[in-house]
Design brief:
The chain has about 525 residues and is of the alpha/beta class. It has helices at about 1-15, 20-40, 100, 105-125, 125-140, 190-200, 210-220, 285-290, 305, 310-325, 360-370, 375-385, 395-425, 425-430, 445, 450-460, 465-470, 480-520; strands at about 50, 60-70, 75-80, 85-95, 150-155, 160-165, 170, 205-210, 230-235, 240-245, 265-270, 335, 340-345, 345, 390, 435-440, 475. A hairpin with a 2-residue loop joins strand 6 and strand 7 (about 170). Helix 7 crosses helix 18 (about 480-520). The longest helix is centred in the last third of the chain and has 39 residues, at about 480-520. The structure holds adenosine-5'-diphosphate (ADP) and magnesium ion. This is Phosphotransferase.
């Protein structure tokens, strides 16, 4: 029996092979779909303009707030930017209750978020909070005063959004297991601001931030160096990336105003939807089942092969198919455990192994990291997380091999996205020795063993990058990225607003001056009034 287990495991593992050729085919298609997205709307890679036209240099200063709705958790923080590439961060985090992810109305979710902000302010910024409440009470005119206790807040909202201003954007679709239909098409900043205002909090939603853009900004602030960061990438619950694109390449029309002087704009790729049409992406039976049984079949197809929310489920489906294979004995045998006693492997009735989403991808990290001959920590986790009692070493080895194959394919697919953008940017060619900097965030890059190494291995195989190119690509962690990044974008937004007011006053002055000048023409000149 163990032999058929080994063979059948190999057969499954082989299905997750993603060769160097596959990587290059993937890159060619990724570049094609990226450029299609720069030209028109409605493509699989959305290439959403973010209105952010520059990256910070580390001298930015001030106290800002940031919140992050990323998928699994809601984070609230305040960030003090010191202006010397360093910052201080006060932070709290709460898991999003599952029922709110599929709430009947968006009010339930956004009301919950506003409550968390209130709790954070009361806990960490009582002085601001109290001062604001005092002011509101004493102020005769509720509106129209400038409140120095007002926090400018960057709202990191990591779902596809059609942005039409720095703090305006409507939700295109939910991803990552969220499904609250009435929010689709609405301005998510307004949804949050309304709930904040109901609680009378001293907070202004100043900027709408995608976590990828936040990661890019944070990385650029903390490591300004000579080379500005090119990509902000997330490998967490979901996966997505933002990068700096030349405005000349952005051929579709961009609504609203933005600063054109830099010649660049940060683009939110929404690469989770790369190749929804399955031109080049791998498709095992397990991928197909996962997609069919998901809340959004046919979309986020790339994400469903790469990110934390889905990898565990792919592993689960593959392991279950082994378990159900009559020729294979997995988690069924009689094994001798370490003290020599015989025990029968069995699986608890309520094991996550038989429930959709029942296997968290963090278990993959445990599996891959366990290098002991007995695989004892993995077997212990199989017991505690999946209620698989007394699994044999062979069982655990099969599980580990499958987890490794799924994780490796995810890393190599990640390299397709990153490598394509590096090629698109032309930065490896522009200079001969500068580094191309990438900021990455999310539990997968942070905790999955050797995830970055596996990305590098695939980058080396990409035509147009090669081993020399891969050496010049630096993937650095930008943890806390979304907090600091969102704060930086709130700062940029507040600056933009001030500039708009100053510009407006200047325009009014100018118009008045022209009128006066027109009314009193100087000698020898005729006035032209427009
Ligand atoms: P978010 O995407 O909500 O900002 P994270 O970046 O922490 O949050 O990602 C959470 C996702 O990462 C979950 O899907 C979880 O299953 C997965 N995850 C958490 N820890 C690990 C780990 N050690 N190895 C692999 N995946 C993990
Ligand atoms: Mg995140």
């Amino acid at each position: 029996m163990p032999n058929s287990l080994v063979e059948e495991t190999k057969r499954i593992v082989a299905q997750f092979d993603y060769s160097d050729d596959d990587v290059n085919k993937g890159v060619r298609e990724f570049l094609r779909q990226m450029n299609e997205g720069l030209q028109k709307d409605g493509t699989s890679i959305s290439q959403i303009p973010t209105y952010v036209t520059g990256v910070p240099n580390g001298t930015e200063k001030g106290l800002y707030m940031a919140v992050d709705l990323g998928g699994t958790n809601f984070r609230v923080c305040s960030v003090h930017l010191n202006g010397d590439t360093t910052f201080n961060l006060t932070y709290s985090k709460v898991a999003i209750p599952k029922e709110l992810m599929v709430a009947k109305t968006s009010k339930e979710l956004f009301g919950f978020l506003a409550k968390q902000i209130e709790f954070f302010l009361k806990t960490h910024h009582e002085e601001h909070f109290e001062a604001h409440v005092r002011r509101r009470r004493s102020s005769k005119t509720a509106e129209g005063y400038e409140d120095e206790n007002l926090f400018q807040l960057g709202f990191t909202f990591s779902f596809p959004v059609q942005q039409f201003g720095i703090n305006k954007g409507s939700l295109i679709r939910w991803t990552k297991g969220f499904d609250i239909p009435d929010a689709v098409g609405k301005d998510v900043c307004a949804l949050l601001q309304d709930e904040i205002d109901l609680l009378h909090l001293p907070v202004k939603v100043a900027a709408l931030v995608n976590d990828t853009v936040g990661t890019l900004m944070a990385r650029s602030y903390t490591s300004p160096g000579k080379t500005a960061t090119l990509i902000g990438a997330i490998f967490g619950t979901g996966t997505n990336g933002a990068y700096v694109e030349k405005i000349t390449n952005l051929q579709k029309s961009v609504d609203g105003v933005y600063d054109k002087s830099t010649g660049e704009m940060v683009i939110n790729t929404e690469w989770g939807s790369f190749d929804n049409q399955l031109n080049v992406l791998p498709k095992t039976q397990f991928d197909a089942t996962l997609d069919r049984e998901s809340v959004n079949p046919g979309i986020q197809i790339f994400e469903k092969r790469v990110s934390g929310m889905f990898l565990g489920e792919i592993v689960r489906l593959a392991v279950v198919s082994l378990y159900e294979n009559a020729n294979v004995s997995l988690f069924k045998g009689v094994t001798s455990n370490t003290n020599g006693e015989q025990s029968t492997t069995h699986i608890g009735d309520d094991s996550g192994l038989f429930q959709q989403w029942g296997l968290d991808s963090s278990l993959m990290s445990v599996a891959v990291a366990d290098d002991t001959p007995e695989l004892s920590s993995l077997r212990q986790e199989l017991d505690s997380q999946l209620k698989i009692r007394s699994a044999s070493v062979e069982d655990a080895q099969a599980f580990k091999n499958i987890a490794h194959a799924v994780g490796r394919r995810a890393a190599r697919l990640s390299a397709v996205a990153l490598g394509s953008i590096v090629i698109q940017s032309g930065r490896l060619k522009e200079t001969s020795d500068d580094l191309v900097d990438i900021g990455a965030d999310g539990s997968l890059v942070e905790h999955y063993p050797f995830f970055r190494d596996m990305i590098y291995e695939a980058l080396k195989a990409i035509e147009g990058i090669g081993p020399e190119g891969a050496e010049r690509i630096r993937i650095g962690l930008a943890t806390d990225g979304s907090g600091v990044g969102a704060a930086l974008i709130a700062l940029v937004a507040a600056g933009m607003e001030k500039k708009a007011i100053v510009d407006e006053i200047a325009a009014l002055k100018n118009a008045a001056a022209q009128k006066i000048a027109g009314a009193i023409p100087s000698a020898g000149e005729s006035a032209t009034l427009t």
